[in-house]
């Protein structure tokens, strides 16, 4: 499948092992290249649901600016945020911040939005995906166990849906499960089917 993309060297511009795992599931040859020190800032007036799309495109521009893209490069960048109570929960600063985030999510329904940018030197296509996730009530003991055992400090909202906390706490997911993991592969596949043919 996606044989028309064989002309490209596909790069996943992300350090996330979850995104690497999910993109691998599409049976595409690619390499994962991490460019550190990309400043993940966004305009204060930007609607919260548009932040991950903005950051995914910012990451793509950073790769382009560093000269890491060639004529046959197809770059995939992404960013995921958790939105609850009109605020964004990104990656936690430390254990205390992670505990605060999980306490905030406990017993609540929150939104997970992932922005994705597919880039060539000649152009790009950006899109986003939204899912709603409902958490059961979590005790401090459960939160502390999860943080000690799984150390989810590289994850938006301080949790991974595919881990222990997902098994015991997530009551309902409306939308894409894989989007909550960090990459809406169903949408990415459909975009890739059309992308190389029209760019």
TrEMBL record:
Cellular component terms (Gene Ontology): cytoplasm
Reaction(s) catalysed (UniProt annotation): UTP + H2O = UMP + diphosphate + H(+); dTTP + H2O = dTMP + diphosphate + H(+)
Highest taxon of the lineage: Bacteria
Record EC number: 3.6.1.9
InterPro entries in the cross-refs: ITPase-like_fam, Maf-like
GO terms (BP aspect): nucleotide metabolic process
Essential cofactor(s): a divalent metal cation
GO function term, MF aspect, one: UTP diphosphatase activity
Hydrolase in keyword set: yes
Keywords attached to this entry: Cytoplasm, Hydrolase, Nucleotide metabolism
Location(s) in or outside the cell: Cytoplasm
Top enzyme class: hydrolase
Tagged with keyword Cytoplasm: yes
Primary role: Nucleoside triphosphate pyrophosphatase that hydrolyzes dTTP and UTP. May have a dual role in cell division arrest and in preventing the incorporation of modified nucleotides into cellular nucleic acids.
PANTHER family given in the database record: BIFUNCTIONAL DTTP/UTP PYROPHOSPHATASE/METHYLTRANSFERASE PROTEIN-RELATED (PTHR43213), BIFUNCTIONAL DTTP_UTP PYROPHOSPHATASE_METHYLTRANSFERASE PROTEIN-RELATED (PTHR43213:SF5)
Family: Belongs to the Maf family. YhdE subfamily.
Name of this chain's protein: dTTP/UTP pyrophosphatase
Species the sequence originates in: Porphyromonas loveana
